[in-house]
Structure formats: C-alpha cells, structure tokens
Specification:
The structure holds two protein chains of two kinds.
Chain A: E1 6-13, H1 21-24, H2 44-47, E2 79-81, H3 94-102, E3 106-109, H4 114-122, E4 126-129, H5 132-144, E5 149-153, E6 158-160, E7 166-168, H6 173-181, H7 185-190, H8 193-206
Parallel strand pairs in A: 1-2, 2-3, 3-4
Antiparallel strand pairs in A: 1-5, 5-6, 6-7
Chain B: H1 6-12, E1 15-18, E2 24-27, E3 30-33, H2 39-47, E4 58-60, H3 78-94, E5 97-98, H4 109-115, E6 124-127, E7 141-144, H5 147-154, E8 158-161, E9 165-172, H6 181-192, E10 200-205, H7 207-211, H8 214-222, E11 231-233, H9 238-248, H10 257-267, E12 280-285, E13 292-294, E14 302-304, H11 318-331, E15 346-349, H12 357-367, E16 378-381, H13 386-394, H14 397-403, E17 407-408, E18 429-432, E19 447-450, H15 453-462
Parallel strand pairs in B: 3-4, 3-6, 4-5, 6-7, 9-10, 9-12, 10-11, 15-16, 15-18, 16-17, 18-19
Antiparallel strand pairs in B: 1-2, 2-8, 13-14
Helix pairs in contact in B: 2-5, 6-8, 12-14, 12-15
The chains are: A alpha/beta, B alpha/beta.
The structure holds iron/sulfur cluster (SF4).
Chain lengths: 211, 475
C-alpha cells in the first residue's frame, strides 16, 4: 500500500451530491484485468463529448470544455472537494484506482459511501470527512481564491487553508497507522495466522456444515 | 444488559481478534467471485507468492460480461472475453469451484449463491460486488467489498472491519395486493434517502417482510446498498429453513443430512432478541405502500404509480433542488406529469434484484394473453441462472413471453449494467427491474425507471407506466 503522511495540493471542486462510481469510472473500463491506466477515463462521461470505449484512443475524443478537469485552472489538481454521499453505488475499486491514477491523493466531502471509503485506503487515497458547514466554507473560499490549495496532515489530522484556517478530521487509529507506514494489510493479518487457525478449528467444530 | 440484534449475533460469532481501536478481524465463511472485480486480486496473490487459505470457501462464476444470446459463438467482445477467460484460468489454477459459461448452474453471482446452498443462515459472506447484501435475506451477514479486500479474503480468509451501527426498518402491517418486495424497498429508500443507511447494517422486519417469500426478501436486502447500507438482513424463520431444505437439496454446497438437524437448531437463534436495542429505527405502514416507479437518476427519486413527477420548487434546500432539476433534465421529464403518462421505449426484466423464478412468474402472469405495445421496441427477459431458466421453461413461462413479443435470454447481468451487448441507445427510456437508475447505467445517456417485474411488464404491454393493480393477472 502507498504511504500517506502529508500532502499539499490544488483543489478541484465537484459541486454535486451523490457522485456515484458509475460516474467516476464507467463500466466499459471495468473489463480491464489490470490495476493501472484508469486515469484518462476518470469521470469519462462528463469529461469527453464523444462516447468512449477501451478500444478508442482517448486522444481522438473531443473534450467537454465545461467540465472541471478540462479547465486550465484545475490542471494538476490533487485534492477533490465533494458533496454528500461521495462514491455511492458499486464496490468497484476501479473508482479509487481511476482517481489515484489521475493524480488525486485526497477527497474531502461531508460523507462517503462505506465501500468507497474503505477502498480508498488500499491505494493510498485519503478520504476526509468534514462537516457540511466546513465543506461549504471550502467551496466558498475556492470560488474566491485562484489556485486554491489545501495542506493535509494525516498525523495531525488537519486540513489547513491558504489563509491559515485549520480544520480537524478524525481517522481510525488502525487505518491511520497502516496508511502512515504504507503497510500491507494482508501481511499484517497474516501475523495472526495462529489465531485465525485457532478460530477456524473452533468454528468448524461448532458449525461443521459451513465447511 | 440489553439483548443482541441479529447483526450483533452474526458479528460476534465471527470475531477472530479485536484491535485496540475497536476494529475486528472477522472470519469469512464464503467468498463469491466474478470476472470483473477478481482479476487484480488473483494477480496480487500470485505476485506475493500466496495461495488461497481455504479453497472450498470460494465459488466463482462469470456473469457481468457474458452474452445472453448465441452463447455457442462465445464472447465476441475481445476485452470481455479476456476477462472471463482470466477468471476461468484463475479458478482452475487455484482449484476454486467455478460454474463456467456453458454450465447450467451459471448465473448471476447473487442468484446462484442461495440457489446452490453456498449462502446459508449464520454465515459471513463477501463478494466484490455491492449487491452482496442480497444474501442477508437468509439471516447471514453479507456485504460487498473492493478488489483489495477480495485478495485479503483469499489469503487469510479474514477481513479487518469496523462494526456498523444497527438500523431496524419495520414495515408495519401487510402490504396490498400487487405490492412486492421491490416496491417495499423502493419506498424505504424513498423515505431514508440513498445515504440514509450509510454506516448502518439494516435489519428488515415487520409483518410485510415476514409475509414475503425468501426470494422477495432477497429483493429487499439486495437494495439495502441503494439506501447506503452495506448489509441488509432478515431474521431466520421457518420459511428460511424450508427454502434451504427444499431449494438446495443435492446442490453443490448444501449441508449434508449428517449435519442438518444441528444446523437447523443453530439457525433458530438467528433473530434479534426481543429486548435488543437498535441505533436507529425506521417504520413504514405497509398499507400505505403502492407500486413504485423511480423518476430520477438516484433510487431515492421514487414515487407511487398514481403520483406525478415531483416539482423541484418544493425541494427542502438548494442542493436538493438543483439535484432534482439536473435529474429531470437528464430524464427528459417535466414536473407535474402523471407517472402513467410516461411512455417507455424498452423493458428489462432481470438482474440480481428480480430474476428469480418468482419474479418470472409474476412477469408472466401479467404478460399472459397480452402483447408488447407498438411503441415498445424491445422487452428482454433475462433469468438469473441456468437452473431458473430451465425451471421457467418447464412451467411454460418462456412461451408466454415469446407469444407476447418478448425476448427470452440466457442468464447474466445483461442490461442491468450493460457491460455486454444488451444496452439502451442514448435517450431511450426503460422500465427496468434492476437496482440502479444512475446516469448512463444502462448505456450512454440512457434513462432508467426502476420498477417491480409485474410493473415492468405492465409498462411493456401498455406502452407507458401503468398500475399493475388495474390489470388482470397483476394483483
Ligand atoms: S445484476 Fe446488476 S447489480 Fe446485480 S451483480 Fe449484476 S451488474 Fe451487479
């Protein structure tokens, strides 16, 4: 897993609730058996005017000039600012891979769909939950300040604005520890092999029909 | 001390260890695998030189990408074919049971789990698919996971999880005739919203849920995720036990005679204690639920068949209002239009929400003696599994559909997410029994209205949405 400690980056404001995983990465790209290369198709339906497909070269497609990611002001953005229920819909981890492949490291929203939230940590994408009011404030400031960037510190659990305002967020200790150190989840779990074997033996004795 | 909820019982029974911050290492009894979310997991496993912890805990099936017609020609889309072949290869290499495309037991992963006895009461069940919540209908803890977690479960048969909060959704009293599990769950989502269940595991209860068949309960639990909850569940009762006993006998994963009595005795406890306390309780009156139709691009945008398309001006706040306006523009609808005045172009009966035998029977009951309306260009009927297809044909349902001018297909996800050739053209409007009406879900710029199977067929034969309760065979 990729490490996450601190990050400073340009904010891309996506001002709509319920941004779903079908919108983040449309299904035709899920046919890939790889983990990388989804970035060019992030928000594909919104980003391009022509329909896309894995067989079509993205360079040949017309960009939608109204879409955020195509505007000069947001080139190189790494912090996505969203609204409620971000990442709802399917369990596809491709949504997270598309965001990180594009270059996003942080998503800030008032709420996230559970599976998306969980998936984010696996690829070093940090989902940060702030209150509705705080998120509103960030949207407001972003509208006023060109090149609006935020500084995120996972250890301190803070988001700092260019004006020096500091917002705190909360992160589960165990998740934070793994993300800060970039630890492999499976490797960590396998350290408890004996406990798993012990549990399994008891479980098999109690419910043999499950085995 | 208060009693335990069903969720507490399932959770507690599977804890291997607990971390300091309260997260638990949870043992997983069953993992279901399909072609879309597993290739990178197997690849990860291979790269790390690991092997599956317990091969027998897994069951694989291709469903998302498979064609639903002319199977003998194989998969023509080369990218999809590679994905299905990759699953075949991975299953073969690691010795995992797979129902391949030519196998009569092949079908949608959430349909074949219960059908094969791979889903049993009291289990923890995961799959790289959000509609894994379906399996909770049998009194199991089932939830969708991402690909990294698929790999994690393959390796040490466990997952690190934080316990969710618990929500009880109680449907008081019975529902009227013509009102199905689909209508119940859409009404619930309309009430709590698509994020209403976020952070919760939902238990569905009350008279209307008890009255549902186990299949109907699967439809309800299937869409728990559309209400934001990763897991939905229903307590075990005699219907559950009969379903497992009669439905799965002799099938690949069913419990053997030797352990049957023991298993049934253990399952008797799979319900919330009378004094259990939930973090949230939501109640709906069964009698007030009418057949439902979604009008927007989120499952919470739903109204009763006798209602009109809502007016954004009446929305509670600015964000809601602009969301509704965007949805209406996308759907090509005007506020105030009666739902029954909306014409449809295509109809889809299928998906892990509504493709079981009981769904097909309900669809056929309305289709019998009627024909596809002239303005409806295509009606797809896609059974959830090969075994369901066979059963339906034994009952003659296929003939009813074909006589009505519908298409009778092979099992798979099909037009639920349009990864194969079954899809809508831009701007086309579909009455669909699937679970998501997101933008472009059924094809680029497609327009989806979620309904029950009977309501889908009512629209197919009427040419527009129609109240199935006013059609013979529908109630
Ligand atoms: S039928 Fe639809 S929702 Fe169900 S598993 Fe297939 S694609 Fe997903």
């Amino acid at each position: 897993m990729e490490k996450f400690t601190q990050h400073q980056g340009l904010v891309v404001p996506m001002d709509r609730p319920n941004v779903d995983t079908d919108a983040i990465i449309p299904k035709q790209y899920l046919k890939s058996v790889k983990r990388a290369g989804f970035g060019p198709n992030l928000f594909d339906d919104w980003r391009y005017l022509d329909p896309g497909d894995p067989a079509i070269d993205n360079a040949s497609r017309r960009l939608n000039p109204d879409f955020l990611l195509n505007q000069p002001a947001y080139q190189g953005g790494t912090v996505l600012l969203g609204r409620e229920n971000f990442g709802c819909g399917s369990s596809r981890e491709h949504a997270v891979w598309a965001l990180t492949d594009y270059g996003f490291r942080v998503v800030i929203a008032p709420s996230f769909a559970d599976i998306f939230f969980n998936n984010s940590f696996k690829s070093g994408l940090l989902p940060i939950t702030l209150s509705e009011t705080e998120v509103e404030q960030l949207f407001e400031e972003e509208r006023q300040v060109a090149g609006y960037a935020l500084e995120v510190d996972l250890q301190a659990e803070t988001v700092t604005t260019p004006g020096g305002m500091v917002f705190s967020f909360q992160m589960d200790e165990f998740r934070k520890y793994r993300l800060l150190n970039g630890l492999d989840d499976i490797g960590l779990t396998l350290q408890h092999q004996d406990e798993i074997k012990g549990y399994e033996a008891d479980h098999r004795a109690a419910a043999p029909w499950l085995f | 001390m208060a009693g335990k909820t069903l969720y507490d019982k399932l959770w507690d029974a599977h804890i291997v260890r607990t971390e300091e911050d309260g997260s638990a290492l949870l043992y997983i009894d069953r993992q279901l695998l399909h072609e879309v979310t597993s290739p990178q997991a197997f690849e990860g496993l291979r790269l790390a030189g690991r092997t599956p912890w317990r091969v027998g805990a897994n069951l694989a099936v291709p469903d998302h990408n498979v064609p639903t017609t002319q199977r003998e020609e194989g998969i023509t889309d080369p990218v999809a074919r590679i994905q299905v072949e990759t699953l075949d290869r991975n299953a073969d290499e690691f010795g995992i049971t797979e129902f391949k495309m030519g196998d009569i037991r092949q079908g949608i992963v959430h349909v074949i789990g219960p059908e094969q006895g791979a889903t049993l009461p009291g289990m923890t069940i995961v799959c790289g698919d959000s509609h894994t919540s379906t399996h909770g209908a049998l009194g199991a803890l089932a939830f969708g996971i991402g690909t990294s977690e698929v790999e994690h479960v393959l390796a040490p048969q466990c997952l690190v999880q934080k316990k969710s909060k618990s929500m009880l959704v109680r449907i008081k009293g019975a529902v009227g005739t013509g009102v199905t599990g689909k209508d119940i769950v859409l009404a619930v989502i309309g009430k709590i919203g698509t994020a209403g269940g976020t952070g919760y595991a939902i238990e569905f209860a009350g008279e209307a849920i008890e009255n549902l068949s186990v299949e109907g309960r699967m439809t309800v639990c299937n869409m728990a995720i559309e209400g934001g909850a990763r897991a939905g569940m229903v307590a075990v009762d005699q219907k559950t036990i009969d379903y497992v006993k009669n439905g799965t006998q002799g099938r690949a994963f069913a419990p053997t005679e030797v352990h049957w009595q023991e298993a049934v005795a253990a399952w008797q406890d799979l319900h919330s204690d009378a004094d259990a306390v939930f973090d949230a309780v939501v109640e709906l009156e069964g009698a007030e639920i009418a057949p439902q139709v979604t009008w927007g691009t989120s499952p919470e945008m739903v109204v009763a068949i006798d209602a009109t398309v809502p007016d954004p001006a009446a929305a509670a706040d600015e964000v809601k209002r602009s969301g509704m306006e965007k949805a209406l523009a996308y759907m090509g609808l005007e506020a105030g239009t009666p739902i029954t005045a909306i014409p449809v172009d295509k109809v889809f009966v299928g998906s892990c929400t509504n493709s079981r035998i009981e769904d097909l029977r309900a669809a056929a009951a309305v289709a019998r003696g009627r024909t596809r309306a002239e303005n409806v260009s295509q009606v797809l009927i896609v059974p959830g599994s090969g075994l369901i297809k066979e059963q339906a044909e034994r009952e003659g349902l296929d003939k009813i559909f074909i006589e009505a001018g519908f298409e009778w297909r092979d099992p798979g996800c099909s037009m639920c997410l349009a990864m194969n050739a079954d899809r809508l053209e831009p701007g086309e409007r579909c009455a669909s029994t699937s679970n998501r009406n997101f933008e472009s879900r059924q094809g680029l710029n497609s327009r989806t209205h979620l309904v029950s199977p009977a309501m889908a067929v009512a629209a197919a034969v009427s040419g527009h949405f129609a109240d199935v309760r006013s059609l013979e065979g529908g109630a």
